Amino acid sequence: MPSVIQVITEGLEYVNDIDQYIKEEGMSDIGTAYKNIAIIGCQSSGKSTLLNVLFDTNFEQLDQNSRGMAQTTKGVWAARNSEKNILIFDIEGTDSRERGDDRMTFEQTTSLFALALADVLMINLWTTDVGRYAASNYGLLKVIFEVNLKLFAQNQNQKKLLFVLRDFNEYEHNREKMIELLEGNVRKIWGEIYKTEEFKDSSPHDFFDFEFHMMPHKIYQKKEFEEAGLQLKEKFNVNNPDTIFPKTESLNVPIDGLPLYIDNCWTCIREQKELNLPGERQMVATYRCGEIKQEAIDKVQDRLDSLQQRSYEGIIDDYKDQCGNILDESISHYDDSAKQYYKETYEGVRLELTNHLIEILYKSFVSQLKNLTLQGDKKFAKAMKNTFNDDTVTDTFADTCNGLFEDTIKQFEQKAKMLC
């Protein structure tokens, strides 16, 4: 069973361990082929339990017998699913008495964080709480709606909101009426939020894709709970034609840049700066492509140094092949790791890498040309000495000299062309 890792502490501090977690869990090479899921909901509403059912994770669950209705998840925790293509973020429960006066600040901060990360944002609530402002997280929904309007203006995709109604009993509750009530609440909240002129006539469905799922009581309707869990679990299969994940192109950063992206987003949210997700992704792309470029240089640095030294000392017969191998290995490493970042950034840094390598190789190329020049000088001098080995004057001296010179130049040009 995959391990779990804390991402945000209960004191709102970012824990910079997710990079190591991604490596240890074998996810380093998946690029953008992953999804993010986050869940929000009231304290002790069974969020962690639901995640464990859906994704075979090991989030800490509430033990009501030993702890009562107390807080279990503190801060933000994360885990991967068994297929290693989904990261799940378990957010501390809302409406927590342990938080006291800081509750609203924490709830809004972590909810915005979940919105910024998640392809699917799950809202877990008791069926009996539908219609109750605080218990149903309607206050947080208002914040989420307002922020997502700004994100949408930054060319963001629609967000998927999944309402999960817990302890739903078909004999007591009407599914259609519950959905109708929730949608009515959503429209009411949408009507209350501030909208710019551009979006004044918009509806929540322009920005969100809503889904609803009913979960029976885990203890008293165990069989029905398990069946409903399996149905929802199948929807989280990314290869399922009816998958819950948005069909639009993923805007996730490659997973090796995710730790930096999370850090930047969290810092922005905590400092109450306006979220600019495209800007954050661009910054991550610039930073990571620069790091990968340096990795690509380091990978061949010893061979570059060796080639430079040997080029200074003499002529290298397979100089062209060695240069080609160095360029191919370095640029291939860069391409493999950086090609999934923003195209303009990736291509720009790739050009920087290529120019840097060529600049270094040019020094050894010049050394090879100097060595070929010295070799040509020696051969020409030797040929002259062998041809004119006494002081005899000959009428063909000029023609012979020109012939030897042309042969020397021809050999030099042939060998020089073989260098590049």
TrEMBL record:
Give the record's membrane topology: Multi-pass membrane protein
Q: What GO terms describe the biological role, i.e. biological process, of this protein? A: endoplasmic reticulum membrane fusion
Recorded hits in InterPro entries, A to Z, give:
G_GB1_RHD3_dom (IPR030386), P-loop_NTPase (IPR027417), RHD3/Sey1 (IPR008803), Sey1/RHD3-like_3HB (IPR046758)
Q: Which GO terms describe its molecular function?
A: GTP binding; GTPase activity
One GO cellular component from the entry? endoplasmic reticulum membrane
Locations listed in the record: Endoplasmic reticulum membrane
Protein's name in the database? GB1/RHD3-type G domain-containing protein
